[in-house]
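FIELD: query
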Amino acid sequence: MGRVSKAQAQENRQHVVATASRMFREKGTVVSIADLMKAVGLTHGAFYKQFASKEDLVDKAIAHAFEDPTAHSPVTLDEHTGEHEAARRTLIENYLSIWHRDHTGDGCPVSGFAADLGRDPDQAARSQQVYINGVRNRAARLATGDDDGMAQLCTMVGALVLARATRGNPISEGLLQAARTALTENGTGQSDRSNARIDREPAGPDGRR
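FIELD: result
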């Protein structure tokens, strides 16, 4: 087999980074190099021709995720250019959607990488500035008047994480709806709120109410 051209090598590298970015968000950075390269369709040995280490790849995968304008939504916001409130509502609805809950690998890197960065101080130290810039940029898209958007972003990320953790139970949809309602004043309608309400009766130690 002949040598891979520089153009092909660069394409392979970009493919590895993009795939790693999705897999790390979906399964965490514990994903092995062997499993990653198998998913990409390249040999394990090819990895070390492209990256100095797994840590090097994780850094690049996190940066790639924050550079992806489609992360967390299959819908573009271009139609709302110049209409901040309409764009803000669309962002909230897309972020707190069933689609986003169920597509972790294609989702927002703020929620997707939070747990890994919280567990790994070394990784956090290397990627912290990229992560912080990503948080600030996303909050800025939610800002209204004197509100810098940070509290709104915290509500969205928290609701999404909880909804993913409770997927399969009606409370999951209820959490998303509750956050949408809180952030858009009236959510998506009274009927949705009643159908997806959160059962507020506390559960006992055995989970029964």
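FIELD: remark
Residues 163 and 169 are 9 Å apart (CA to CA).
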